[in-house]
Description:
The complex is a heterodimer. Chain A is α/β, with parallel strands linked by helices. Helices cover 62% and strands 9% of the residues of chain A. Chain A is rod-shaped and about 150 Å long. Chain B is built from 16 helices and twelve strands. In chain B, helix 7 runs antiparallel to helix 8 (204-238) and helix 8 packs antiparallel against helix 13. Chain B is elongated, with a radius of gyration of 30 Å. The chains are: A alpha/beta, B alpha/beta.
Amino acid sequence: MTPTRLTPFEQRWLAETLRRHEAAQGMLDDSALLPALANTGTDDESRIMQRAQSLARQHFPQWLDGMRQWQTQAWWVLAFLSVVAALSGFFSALGLMNAGAITPDGRALNVPWMLLALLAAPSFSLVVWLVSAMSRGSQQTPLGQLALWLQRHVPGKKSHSLLLGQDLLGLLAQKRLLGLGMGSLSHGLWLLALAGALLGCLLMLATQRHVFVWETTILQADVFVDLVHFLGRPLALFNLPTPSREMILASGNSHVQQDDAARQAWAAWLLGCVLVYGVLPRLLALATSFAFWVHGLANLRLDLKRPGFAMQRARLQQIRQNLGIIDPAPTSLSLTHKRDGQHDASSGQAALAAFELGGDLPWPPDMSPEAALTFRVYPRIDSREERQRLLDQLAHAHAPSLLIAVDPRLSPDRGSLHFLNQLAMYSAIPMIWLVGKHERVRLWRETLLQAGWPGDALLDDAAANVWLGGAAWARR
Amino acid sequence: MGAPLKLAVVGHTNTGKTSLLRTLTRDTAFGDVAARPSATRHVQGARLLADNESIIELYDTPGLEDAMSLWDTLEQQSFPNERLDGPARITRFLASPAAQLRFEQEAKALRQLLASDAGLVVIDVRDPVLAKYRDELGILVLCGKPLLPVFNFVHGAEMHAEAWREALARLGLHSVILFDAIVPAIDGEQRLFAKLALMLERHAAALERLMAARRREADERRQSALELIASLLIDAAAYRILVPRPNDDKAAEAAEHSLQSASELMRERLRQREAACVRDLLTLYRFREHDVQASGLPLAAGRWEHDLFSRDALGIVGIKLGKGMTVGAATGIGLDLILGGLTLGAATLAGAAVGGLWQLGHVYGDHILGALRGYRTLTAEDAILRLLALRQLWLLDALQRRGHAATQAVALDSPEGQGWRKDGLPAPLLKARSHGEWSSLNQDIGDDEARTQAVHDLREFLS
């Protein structure tokens, strides 16, 4: 176990890695974690990150090390690239300054060529970056794609650190963060290279004597005057001098000796151009993309709409919803609805009663007129008053047998059972007729059996008809 | 943000109170549901969250079963010379020994209703309005809380909704909502919350937030689900196995054998991939596998009743298997003898024209190389892709309806699926045919931008 705390970024990275892993390999078992998780954290994202962290520490501790490794390596690469950039800028400046021929007046320095050599490459790459930043095309940078291509095509075992790298790219692909990060990196490196070049130029100008020249075969001298003045205009904002018209014209004529004022003006102008056209735009671009990168990184959130995360959210919410049992069930149910006691057998008329029978079922039931005469048929029973009246009537009737028709479409409940049990006490042979066919007939039978009714006292339609016919016949 | 709205869900026994809670919480594991009375004997709570805010707390209560005797008891407990209001009478009853013994279940429900802001009275409208039900409602009204009757089982053959409305009106309950807990209307939940917001003005703003959050969640869930389906289809379309082509008669037998085993492998892995998608969809919609079984969908243990490669499965959804060559007894796996699964869709052709020959080589290189080296390519037939799409969309449809018994008839012949039966396959799938690297069945895929784009396009096509 690594006790180190993870930064929010690392937590998201880990969550993304786990999401990818689970999408490919199936969900890890987190049943032990989930209940505690559901009640921690402030939002779904933090819970998902917490889950990923716990599971990763449990199953994939190498991921955590891998993440650290990645970052260390990234820093080393960054440091190496920085040094290379600064040095290459510095030494190419040295080389360029030394490229000119040595004249008695000092080392010749072709101003237009020098400017082109120092500024062409950085300016061109800056323009390319600008264009690609403006167009909202591909989400992935060439570098990211290269990494993926390598990952796919380099043979051998795909190690977890490569997978982690892939997940990092996936995470950063959101909101163009990857582009911003790569942009910041390239601006930073260019800036270092330009700073190195500026330093190199400064060093050479400080320690060598240069003569600034320009040459042409077909152009007018005024073109150079205009060019130098045009480029020098922004320099004036920084109080940097621009060579005067005379100085420029004199530089075109290599036979004229250059005075020190002209040399200094030229040197200041050259350095100013590198500063204003090279360093400054890069600095601005770096500041902008770095600011966006930092802002984007701070606002980086997991994309919870992705199916993997959406599933976790659904599961976590399910647990968070449950408030548990507020008022527990009684350990045993009261037995008030158990049937007890029976009335003495007597010689009255068999009776028919209908308890909460649906209006669509006929009452009295279909039977021959003679049969109907043999029964005492009570009206349908529903309300409290009707129930009470029936109980009173039965108390005086002394019915030897009582058939109670019940509507099995209703759900059996304690109140009904209680009343049926009460009715049963007024007859020697109480029976219940479950009228019609319904899925709840089985339920009624179970409930009545549980309440102490014998199985043969529960009649279906066929049995009830037989009984109705038989009882009538016996009476006759 | 005030305290959450507390709602007690009350009603006669076996009217579907717990089912209502399950549907509202989208939690198929909540409480015990059984088609028998007194399935719930305890009070259990659940909260409905909007983002992280608890908006409603719902309490499932035991059913009322013996209201008539309870009325008697209430009457016995009031003295001739006093005039108590409803809540006072209920409070007195709750303090009496009867509330601990015979009426324990009823007492639990009433206690919870008194402690709540309002009650949802669940009514099974298939039942006629019996005297005992009137008594129940009367007792609930005594509690002095706002009550919203919820008509359940409104899809039943026989209904007494009008009689119920009249009976409720006599008790001063004029507002009613139809909400079938088993087969809820698509907007049923929203209408329920809207009604509550009208009834309980203090909570209207919070309920509005809940409704908005629910709509957003439903939309996000659907998008995620479609992405899962799209990903499955891309995986299946791009899946391919190269098998060697026999050079002479001697090798023919061995080649035939390897063809058989490769196609069997392919079918098994496609089955597994589909099962994984089904599992993910269920998780996303908070269904457990055995819930689905109970809901009438032809799924068993996360798999469809009919095998992906059986002619029955195709027949049910009305797809005919292509006339393409099939491998032995195996259906659904196609074998391309010429240039293995090379499908030059118009889009890819255009792309190739733009990108030049290099792209053509990039896209079809594997195929051509394979063909030259004497390999043949096995791929899943179009019919299988169609079936996969239709089945998952069908499942999604059922899940969105919190599918239960009635969903079975819904989608199999639904017009939406028509395109999947007859028209050509959508462009992203055709494209995937020539991108073996897009299938997670072929290799461990990375975050391939083109694949992500294809999944995205297909998801758009599906929605």
